[in-house]
Design goal:
- The longest helix is centred in the N-terminal third of the chain and has 22 residues, at 35-56.
- Helix 6 links the parallel strand 11 (216-218) and strand 12.
- This protein has helices spanning 10-13, 17-28, 35-56, 78-92, 156-160, 229-239, 255-265, 284-297, 328-340, and strands spanning 65-69, 75-77, 97-102, 109-110, 120-128, 139-147, 169-175, 179-184, 189-195, 200-205, 216-218, 248-249, 268-271, 301-303, 323-326.
- It has two domains: 12-205, Fructose-1,6-Bisphosphatase, subunit A, domain 1 (Fructose-1,6-Bisphosphatase, Chain A, domain 1, 2-Layer Sandwich), CATH 3.30.540; 216-341, D-Maltodextrin-Binding Protein, domain 2 (3-Layer(aba) Sandwich).
- The strands form three sheets. Strands 4-3-5-6-7-8-9-10 form an eight-stranded mixed sheet, sandwiched between helices. A five-stranded mixed sheet has the order 12-11-13-15-14, with helices on both faces. It has a two-stranded antiparallel sheet with strand order 1-2.
- By secondary structure, it is an alpha+beta fold.
- The structure holds 6-O-phosphono-alpha-D-fructofuranose.
- 6-O-phosphono-alpha-D-fructofuranose binds next to helix 7.
Length: 342
Amino acid sequence: MGADPPVRSASKLITTAQQHILEQKEIHFPDAGGTFSWLLSGITLATKMIEAKIRQAGLLDILGAAGETNVQGESQQKLDVFANQALLHCLGVRESVAILVSEENEEPVVFDRAPETGKYVIFFDPLDGSSNIDVNVSVGTIFSIFRRPESAEANVKSAILQPGWKQVAAGYVVYGSSTILVYTAGKGVFGFTLDPSIGAYVLSHDNLRMPEQGGFYSVNDAQYTHFPQAYQRYLDALRNGSLGREYSSRYVGSLVADFHRTMLKGGVFLYPPTKGYPSGKLRLLYEASPLAFIAEQAGGMATNGDQRILDIEPENIHQRTPLVIGGSVEVSEFQKRWRAAR
Ligand code: P6P
């Protein structure tokens, strides 16, 4: 009988998101208490609740509008309402949360917690792309985490209206053919696939890097005639091979799905100013800014044309921004053309 095979400790087989967050804390944030990892566990718990409801959506009477409209004037899908409540609850019970800002809530949710306890401000879009739910297209959750400013004159407004470069973490969950959590805490980007058999997010994309140049551009072509001319010329260049390669067009119409493909395959996603949305449709604080943080951490770029998304000084909680996000080759080329057209 030969020697027994070496016993591999379970930790060599899988790394869960919780393990990873704790390991990252030990490596990069050794002085931080457990509050940060406890905070992120609130987000992973809420997204598992959301995922379970989404997977049942076709069976339960949960499809279709909830009969209400949200602060954006958009009809609220029942899953939107559930997702928002799940995140508000799971994060609200974490003592380290001072303020929550949701796409579904006109006003921020402020908790009466001392500054030394309530250290974090969290923004989220609980279920982005929800209009796609009834046709079974991937949807997503996006989140962004800031520290609450410690300065004496800090107030709710100054805590909320911080530029994106001050984020301490950001991430998204894409509820697609599998459910994947992608997050950064400023030291690289990591992806975890939900294993339904154990109910845990397991490391599947270690130190994700966005290709410098990819093969897809992603934009709502139907709006082409309403785009500023610099965007039209840029799209023409992508189509006629001026960037040195051929491109295919891919547009899901669900930001998190379009961005996740761009993260993995490269290329560029654009939501330009249009007639209907002169400042662009996407929201700065809980859509463009967290995705920009992730993109830059993975070697990509994100701009509104005039400046880096992460440098924009927010003026109001639900403000919109044009967004061009993707590989450094595609976004640099856009910036060059945009500035030349100014
Ligand atoms: P359009 C979904 O409603 C959403 O907010 C994003 O997820 C998506 O990228 C965008 O709108 C699609 O907008 O105008 O192309 O339908």
